[in-house]
Design goal:
eight-stranded parallel sheet, 12 helices, TIM Barrel, elongated, 2 domains, Sulfite Reductase Hemoprotein, domain 1, 351 residues, alpha/beta, five-stranded mixed sheet
């Protein structure tokens, strides 16, 4: 059983973050925020796959102005990503944004930081301090200490600025493209601050490599009870980030949204097109929001027994397959009819 790290609880829109709240899955739009229609369409697509928080890049005044309409029509809370220009943060708060991602150290003079924090405090807008390994302050870059310590020191500096202004609606991230550095940074800061932590391996890469890096990095930390929100950063359609995020959480029994798919590797006993069948089953049931386990097994000899914990499954034969439920075979079906028959049985099931 995973024992979660205790932290201060925040609320972003209608989503609770930290302490014992469910670990949230978030992503980021890759649309031009000024294009309200395209941005809302992508937010809708992300939320259809379960995304609970969406971040928007706010590069200029027009984007900050578009936030007003996007927030009104968004089905989930939104976070504005701000760099350098404190006025954009203020504009987004005034336009109803639910949270900010910024670093106090890069938005100019102390008086500018104070203006943002004062308004955020009045409106109860949480702020994520996001430290990336590749953009540390120059004096920290030159220090002869491990990179993860530099990242933590940077975060603590930014946190102190907010705390000195009596602001504690804080979430923190410490991201690196190097998995071990990311793990070390989160471990190092975890017992130094009381705030929730947003996990991510930044610039993780394209789908396959990015999934591996993120699964190792996020999975290690989550298994240690560290992490309150996650983003799987991929050079891919952001929908894939959401799917991956839930799969990582489900693998550790931290969330139970949607179907849990299992399938065996191919071997010499397999007499059915297992790879194609497994992909089809996964695709067919990817949007089924029921806490079911569905298995696709290569042979009828061992399949039903090995996957007896699955609610439903298919075990391959020669040109046919067996559909089983809780380890018991309930139907024998030609290979080309397996998918439709399995769907029919699941839909009719009362589970």
């Amino acid at each position: 059983m995973i024992i979660r790290r205790k932290s201060k609880e925040l609320t972003i829109g209608n989503i609770k973050i930290g302490n014992n709240a469910p670990i949230s899955v978030q992503s980021m739009c890759n649309t031009d925020t000024r294009d309200v229609k395209a941005t809302l369409n992508q937010i809708k697509e992300l939320t259809d796959y379960g995304c609970e928080l969406v971040r928007l890049a706010v590069l200029n005044k027009d984007a900050a102005e578009a936030v007003k309409e996007i927030v009104k029509k968004s089905p989930v809370p939104l976070i504005a990503d701000i760099h350098f220009d404190y006025r954009l943060a203020i504009q987004c708060i005034n336009n109803g944004i639910n949270a900010l991602r910024l670093n106090p150290g890069n938005i100019g003079k102390r008086e500018n930081v104070e203006k943002v924090i004062k308004l955020a405090k009045q409106q109860k807008i949480p702020i994520r301090i996001g430290v990336n390994a590749g953009s540390l302050e120059k004096d920290l870059q030159e220090k002869d200490i491990p990179l993860y310590e530099k990242m933590t020191e940077s975060a603590l500096r930014h946190i102190k600025i907010l705390e000195d202004l009596d602001f504690d609606l804080i979430k923190v991230s410490l991201k690196s493209s190097d998995v071990q550095t990311t793990i070390d940074a989160y471990r190092y800061i975890a017992d130094k601050i009381p705030y929730p932590l947003h996990l991510g391996v930044t610039e993780a890469g394209t789908l396959k490599r990015g999934l591996i890096k993120s699964s190792v990095g996020l999975g290690t930390l989550l298994a240690e009870g560290i992490g309150d929100t996650i983003r799987v950063s991929l050079t891919e359609n952001p929908v894939e980030e959401v799917i991956a995020g839930f799969e990582i959480l489900k693998s550790l029994n931290l969330r139970k949204r949607g179907v849990n798919f299992i399938s065996c590797p191919t071997c010499g006993r397999t007499q059915i097109n297992l790879i194609e069948l497994a992909k089809k089953v996964e695709e067919r049931f990817k949007n089924l929001d029921k806490p079911l386990t569905i298995a696709v097994m290569g042979c009828a000899v061992n399949g039903p027994g090995e996957a007896r914990h699955a609610d439903f499954g298919i075990a391959g034969g020669i040109g046919e397959g067996y559909i089983f439920k809780k380890g018991e075979i309930i139907a024998r079906v030609p290979e080309n009819e397996l998918l439709e028959k399995l769907e029919e049985i699941i839909i009719k099931s009362s589970i």
